[in-house]
Amino acid sequence: MSIKNLTTLCTGLFLLIVFSFLAYQRVHKPRIFVLHSYNVNMPWVQSLNQGVRAVFGDKAYISLRHYYMNTRQPNSKDYMERVSKVIKSTIEAWRPDILIAFDDDAQSLAVREFGHSPSIKVILAGITDSRRWLEYDHTPNVTGITEQIPVKAIREILSLMFRNQKRIYYLSDNSTVAKTLDKSITKADWGSFELVAHKRVKTFDQWKAAVQEAEKKADILLVSVYYTIIDGNKQVNPRELVRWMNEHSSIPVVGVYEAFIIDGGMLAIAISSMEQGFTAAWLALNIIEKKLTIQEIPLLHGKTFSLFMQKDMLLKRFPYVHIPVILEAFSKSHWSLDTLSSPELEISGMEKLRLKTGKNEIIS
Questions:
Q1: What is the DSSP secondary-structure string of 171-205?
Q2: What is the CATH number of domain 151-255?
Q3: Maximum CA pair distance of the chain?
Q4: Which comes out higher in pLDDT, residue 99 or 126?
Q5: 208 touches 242 (CB < 8 A)
Q6: CATH no. for 3-148+274-302
Q7: What is the mean pLDDT of the chain?
Q8: What is the pTM of this model?
Q9: Other C-beta atoms lying within 10 Å of the C-beta of residue 317
């Protein structure tokens, strides 16, 4: 065989091997399906995705797909059934290795349809009630991270900013999310603060009445979720609701989600949605790269929170508020949310919820 023919043969074999490898890699890429309960435009969801991108942004060998259920707004039973069927068939057809489910509706579907799947591992994030994990005690294919209002952080920051204001009125909509969040709010140790009232409402008129009631009973109005508030037959625009509070509330309003600042609020001591997204993706990456099983991964309880402040607006409206330099440096105003850096998370630095030990108890 001539050198020319040998060179041609070797080149052909080399190209065949390369293309075969690329084809194999494309077909056998680890697949992760990311299922969101809400829509892509929500600040909470965008921050979750930012956390996911921080982990998978440079991992070209992993294939990602996202699906948004859009269940924040009121939906009919028929809509939920149709969406669930589409998601189930899509996941079964694509056959991902890991299913990440964010927030309640996505989690319920993931556990119901794939909690016992022999081929799909399920990671949940954004669970608002840690006691739901008891339901998964006999579901060995599920792990993840819970989401709770950072009551201790709220208490400590408020104590620095409000020296003589100690009465808190807690207000939310009447959604399922609000009902689960309420448990951590009402049963928490508020230290020197007093939780004088707690109210869930459905309509904008009821919300306005609650704000006015809070002015008479409390010094601080604490609000969580308000996206299901309606005015007549329409949902109230969140920005309109927050703007109304800014104009009419005679006491400071504090949010527990970063969306409150984006909607125009003055102060938020918020659950870190980026931590939720980052941790879920980080767990998935460890399952893929380190070949971990779900049983080897403890359920986690996120502890990261963020402080957001519109300082000028806050002080103009409530000049008695004290803002220590360290809090001002720590806080981030709403226009810088897009540049938040991803948190550095380590399992060893987070609270582990050992609910799969068979003891059915939470160990801090």
A1: EEESSHHHHHHHHHHHTS--TT-EEEEEEEESBHH
A2: 3.40.50.2300
A3: 98
A4: 99
A5: no
A6: 3.40.50.2300
A7: 83
A8: 0.76
A9: 16
Q: In the prediction, which pLDDT does 32 show?
A: 97
- Please state whether 303 falls in left (phi above 0), alpha (psi between -120 and 50) or beta: alpha
Cα–Cα distances (Å) from 188 to 90, 174, 184, 218, 252, in that order, read 41, 20, 6, 18, 21
Return the SS3 of 124. Answer: strand
Within 8 A by CB and 6+ apart from 137, the residues are: 355, 356, 358, 360
| Amino acid at residue number 39 | N
Token pair 């989401």 is at which residue?
A: 147
H or E stretch covering 19: helix 3-27
Matching fold, domains 3-148+274-302 and 151-255: yes
CA dist., res. 204 & res. 278, Å (int)? 35
Inter-residue contact 181 to 128 (CB < 8 Å):
yes
Query: What is the chain's Cα-based Rg?
Result: 24
Cα(218)–Cα(238) distance, rounded to whole angstroms? 23
Q: 360: which residues sit within 8 A by CB, 6+ positions away? A: 134, 137
